Sequence to fold (125 residues):
Amino acid sequence: MAKKATTKETIAKNTIRDMKNLGTYKPEYDPLIDVYADIFSQYLRANKEFEESGYRYETETAAGGTKKSAIVATLENLRKDLLAYSDRLCLNPKSLKNNDDDGNDNKPPKENKLSPLDQFLSSQM
Fold:
């Protein structure tokens, strides 16, 4: 089994490869891809930390109650950011559909059965 890509550089390289396969890559997108790769690597590190904590969802407050743990809030925010950037980079089915509706002919190859994001995630495992 191939090692999961966790570095910013590897994620950026794989994202560019996936965008080229989809016909949506342009060199002008490199700064956006760089931010996306950084967020993705942060998400992977935070998710690993959450896993190592035993998936602790709640923490105790000083008043004796419970609240959502900081790592869970961080993961939620990173997921939202990833979704926003994947939309901008046309890496998910919704953004590809919207892109096609705009009259753009950047259609994914017929042989791709998985969504671009699913392809990317499966290539990371």
User: Anything to note?
Assistant: The helical segments are 8-22, 30-52, 70-88, 93-101, 116-123. The mean pLDDT is 84. DSSP finds five helices and two strands in the chain.
